From TrEMBL, chain B:
The lineage of its organism: Eukaryota, Metazoa, Chordata, Craniata, Vertebrata. It comes from Haliaeetus albicilla (White-tailed sea-eagle). Belongs to the CGI121/TPRKB family. Its main location: cytoplasm. It is found in: Cytoplasm, Cytosol; Nucleus. This is EKC/KEOPS complex subunit TPRKB.
Length: 291, 175
C-alpha cells in the first residue's frame, strides 16, 4: 500500500499503487463510481485553493477505487489499510473525508455489509463519545452509498505518537509525558465507563489539540469500535494500547504505568478490567500457558 | 444579504438562505408551503444557531434526493426533516417549520446549475423585511434548541452547541 504523504507542496498521491492487483475496473466490481475515476479529477477538484491538491489524475490507469470527493483544497493525508483519509473544505469548514477502500478479494455481498457496518459503527461511536463528553471529531455527513464519512478536521493537531517522539528526541521535560499519560488514562477510563471499546488504540489514534501544552486529547478512528460492558473487551483494548505503546516508543514503561494508575483511579469499574488485563498479558504470543 | 453556498459534493447545486423579520403573513406562507406552491423550505429561525446547520441538513437532503432514498415527499420537506434529531416527520415540521404566529422566517432554496435563483419572487411573497443572516444569532432561542436536541452538560464542555447539533443531525439514521 502507498505510504502516507506529507502535506506540503504539490505532490502526487500514492494512489496508483492502491489496489494491490492493479485491475482496471471499467465496469465491474463493488467499488462506487469506478468507471468515473478518470473523469473525476478534471472538473471536480478546485485547483484555486491555497494548498496544492494532491489528487492523482488518471495517469495511473489502475486508479480503480472510488474517486476522491470533489472538495476544494483536497489533499490526501493518509492511506491506511481500511480507508483513505483526505483533508478539504466541506460546507465552508475544514473537514476530513474518510473513504473506505473496497477490498476486492472479499465476496461483494460481504464487502458491502462489512463496509456499511464499520461506517455505521464509526458514526455511532463518535456520537456516543460526544454525548458522554469525550473529545472526538464532529460528524458532518455520512454517505452510506460509498461508505464514506465526513468529519471535523482538528486543524494543527498532532498525534500523541509524534508528540512523544519529538519530546524524547529533544531530550528534555519527560515529566510532561507523565502528565500526558495520566490524561490518557483518564480519557480511556471515561470511554470504557461508557462501555465503548475503541478497538484500535494506538498513539497515532489520539490527537493533541493545539496548543500542545494544554494536553487536550481527542480520540479518532472508531472504525473498529463496538459497545461492550465486559471487562474482557476493555482489558483487551488496554492490552492493544500497551503493545502499541511499548513497541513504538522505547523506554516508556513508567509512562504506561502512570496511565494505568490514573485509569484505575478514574474508572468506577476498573478493578475487574485491570485483573483481566493481567490475564490477557499472560495469554499473548510466545507466552507459556503453564500455571 | 443572503447567503449562498455551493454544495461541494454535488457540483452545480447551490443552497441559498434568506432571512426575513417582522413577517406578517406567516399563516398564509405556511399554507402555501404545505400545498407545495412555494419553491423553498420555510424554517423557524429560533431553532437555528448557525447557517452551517442548514447547510448540513441541505447537503443530506440533496444526497438522499439524488439516490432516491428520501423519507419525505419533497426536497424542501426533507431539509426540514434533516434538521430534526429524531425520525418523527410531523414532529420535525412542527418544531422546525414555521407556525402561524411566527414573526421571523428563514427561507432555504436549492437550485441546480441550469435554474437561476429567483430571489425576488420569494421575497415578494413574504410580507416582511429581508435582513442579513448576521442577525440570525439574535433570533435563536438557545434554551429551546438545547432542549430539542437534548444536549448534555458534559457535551457543552468539549465543543460548541453547533457541534452537538450537527453531530446528532448527521448520525440520527444510524442510531
Amino acid at each position: 500500500m502507498a505510504a502516507a504523504e506529507t502535506e506540503a507542496g504539490g505532490l502526487r498521491s500514492g494512489m496508483a499503487g492502491a489496489a494491490g492487483p492493479a485491475v482496471d475496473e471499467a465496469g465491474a466490481g463493488a467499488g462506487a463510481g469506478a468507471g468515473a475515476a478518470a473523469a473525476v479529477a478534471g472538473p471536480a477538484v478546485d485547483e484555486a485553493g491555497a494548498e496544492a491538491p494532491a489528487v492523482d489524475e488518471a495517469g495511473a490507469a489502475e486508479e480503480a477505487e472510488a474517486p476522491p470527493p470533489p472538495l476544494p483544497g483536497l489533499q490526501l493525508v493518509q492511506q491506511g489499510a481500511e480507508a483513505r483519509v483526505y483533508r478539504g473544505l466541506f460546507l465552508g469548514r475544514a473537514a476530513v473525508a474518510k473513504l473506505r477502500i473496497p477490498k476486492r478479494y472479499r465476496h461483494p455481498a460481504l464487502e458491502e455489509r462489512l463496509s456499511r457496518r464499520r461506517t455505521a459503527q464509526e458514526a455511532r461511536s463518535l456520537l456516543r463519545c460526544r454525548r458522554a463528553g469525550i473529545s472526538a471529531p464532529v460528524v458532518y455527513f455520512v454517505d452510506y452509498v460509498t461508505n464514506s464519512i465526513y468529519l471535523e478536521d482538528i486543524v494543527g493537531a498532532i498525534t500523541v505518537q509524534d508528540h512523544i517522539n519529538s519530546v524524547q528526541q529533544s531530550g528534555n521535560d519527560t515529566s510532561s509525558l507523565l502528565t500526558l499519560a495520566e490524561k490518557m488514562g483518564e480519557l480511556l477510563a471515561r470511554m470504557h465507563d461508557e462501555d465503548l471499546i475503541h478497538g484500535d488504540l494506538t498513539t497515532s489514534n489520539i490527537l493533541l489539540r493545539p496548543p500542545t501544552e494544554k494536553l487536550d486529547l481527542v480520540l479518532i478512528d472508531f472504525g473498529l469500535s463496538f459497545i461492550s460492558g465486559l471487562p474482557e473487551d476493555k482489558g483487551v483494548d488496554l492490552y492493544v494500547l500497551e503493545k502499541a505503546f511499548l513497541s513504538t516508543h522505547p523506554d516508556t514503561e513508567t509512562m504506561f504505568k502512570a496511565l494505568l494508575k490514573t485509569y484505575a483511579a478514574t474508572s468506577k469499574k476498573s478493578g475487574p478490567v485491570i485483573k483481566r488485563l493481567d490475564e490477557v498479558r499472560l495469554r499473548g504470543r510466545k507466552r507459556s500457558m503453564i500455571g | 444579504m443572503d447567503l449562498t453556498h455551493q454544495l461541494e459534493l454535488f457540483p452545480g447545486c447551490s443552497v441559498t438562505l434568506l432571512l426575513f423579520s417582522h413577517v406578517k403573513n406567516a399563516a398564509a406562507l405556511r399554507k402555501k408551503a404545505v400545498e407545495g406552491s412555494i419553491e423553498g423550505a420555510l424554517i423557524n429561525p429560533a431553532m437555528i444557531v448557525d447557517p452551517f446547520q442548514i447547510l448540513v441538513a441541505a447537503n443530506k437532503a440533496v444526497h438522499l434526493h439524488k439516490i432516491g432514498k428520501m423519507k419525505t415527499r419533497t426536497l424542501y420537506a426533507e431539509i426540514i426533516f434533516s434538521l430534526s434529531p429524531n425520525n418523527n416527520i410531523s414532529d420535525a415540521f412542527k418544531k422546525f417549520g414555521i407556525s402561524d404566529s411566527d414573526t421571523a422566517v428563514l427561507v432555504v432554496l436549492v437550485v441546480d446549475r441550469e435554474k437561476t435563483v429567483n430571489l425576488e419572487d420569494i421575497a415578494s411573497q413574504v410580507e416582511g423585511q429581508q435582513v442579513s443572516l448576521d442577525e440570525l444569532p439574535q433570533l435563536t432561542d438557545t434554551a429551546k434548541v438545547k432542549k430539542m436536541y437534548k444536549v448534555t452538560p458534559q457535551e457543552e464542555k468539549i465543543g460548541t452547541l453547533l457541534d452537538s447539533i450537527v453531530c446528532r443531525m448527521s448520525t440520527k439514521d444510524v442510531l
